[in-house]
């Protein structure tokens, strides 16, 4: 299915929502002016507004996941580095911030994007550099440091999705295709080169339910990639990148053992365009219980093998050992 070009904003001039799945990035995700029937009180919106920036950096040697999250009444950030050859976690940072102070995320998901997290001597900075059409990520959290840049000039179209959410209100997201990566990661005096690797990002912003759950999978190289979600956002953000094309995918199914997440996963879409096995190499997990809030987060890192198709009658395109992540996540927020 060919996707229409993304609108500039999530809202039309009359405050109605530009629901749909689009090719190209939204210029802005700004919910001010949201009209009925989706309009809610300012207080309701404050406690249900969830906004995050996630970045993945992948090479043959290392995988890093970095996120800045504003949940309305508080904020948090995490970052980790996983050694793919030794199959062990090299560094892991997680910190809840001060409401309204530690985390900053602007309304631009791609061009003009800027997000940061500050707490004591820990800092994460992410931004789009318009002059060079690149994205820059810098991190300094103790003896864990990242200096990375990724180039969007030759990238396949980004995915934008705007839709209703289960038990919540409305939500929007922009996902990148695979982007050429440069830079380095330093951990306790040891350095890992990122040159020749692949970066991807996820910018999401909307009003979610008090209890929200999802399963997610994402992996990219420069020729193909995919984003899959099952849960609160339905199939709104399910897509395949193949040789520069952005292809809409249907509902995704995740078959795995939640008690043993390092066993293989089977992931497929109902439209018959994707069927993959995921072999975990390791996992980042975190459980929080803050009485009024809770989070159960599981993100295995590993490789995908199987096949994808550009259309119903197209030939199968094999996938082998494509590095990426899956996720099983529940939040009461």
Automatic annotation (TrEMBL):
InterPro entries: DUF2804. Pfam families: DUF2804 (PF10974). It comes from the Bacteria. This is DUF2804 domain-containing protein. It comes from Undibacterium parvum.
């Amino acid at each position: 299915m060919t996707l229409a070009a993304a609108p500039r904003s999530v809202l039309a001039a009359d405050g109605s929502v530009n629901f749909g799945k689009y090719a190209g990035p939204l210029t802005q995700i700004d919910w001010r002016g949201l009209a009925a029937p989706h309009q809610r009180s300012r207080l309701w919106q404050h406690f249900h507004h969830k906004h995050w920036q996630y970045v993945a950096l992948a090479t043959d040697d290392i995988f890093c996941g970095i996120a800045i999250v504003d949940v309305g009444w508080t904020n948090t950030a995490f970052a980790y580095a996983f050694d793919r050859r030794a199959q062990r976690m090299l560094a892991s940072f997680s910190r809840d911030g001060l409401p309204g102070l530690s985390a900053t995320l602007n309304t631009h998901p791609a061009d003009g994007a800027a997000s940061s997290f500050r707490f004591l001597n820990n800092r994460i900075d992410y931004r789009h550099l318009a002059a060079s059409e690149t994205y820059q990520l810098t991190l300094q959290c103790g003896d864990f440091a990242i200096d990375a840049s990724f180039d969007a000039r030759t990238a396949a179209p980004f995915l934008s999705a705007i839709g209703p959410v289960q038990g919540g209100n409305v939500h929007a997201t922009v996902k990148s295709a695979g982007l050429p990566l440069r830079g380095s990661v330093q951990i306790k005096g040891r350095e890992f080169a990122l040159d020749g690797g692949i970066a991807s990002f996820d910018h999401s912003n909307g009003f979610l339910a008090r209890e929200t759950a999802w399963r997610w999978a994402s992996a990219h190289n420069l020729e193909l990639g995919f984003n899959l979600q099952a849960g609160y956002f339905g199939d709104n953000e399910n897509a395949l990148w193949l040789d520069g094309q952005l292809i809409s995918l249907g509902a995704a199914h995740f078959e795995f053992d939640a008690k043993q997440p390092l066993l293989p996963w089977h992931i497929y879409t109902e439209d018959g365009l994707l069927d993959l096995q995921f072999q975990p190499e390791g996992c980042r997990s975190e459980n929080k219980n803050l009485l009024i809030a809770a989070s159960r987060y599981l993100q295995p890192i590993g490789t995908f093998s199987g096949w994808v198709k550009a259309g119903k009658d197209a030939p199968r395109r094999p996938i082998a050992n494509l590095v990426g992540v899956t996720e099983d996540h529940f939040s009461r927020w």
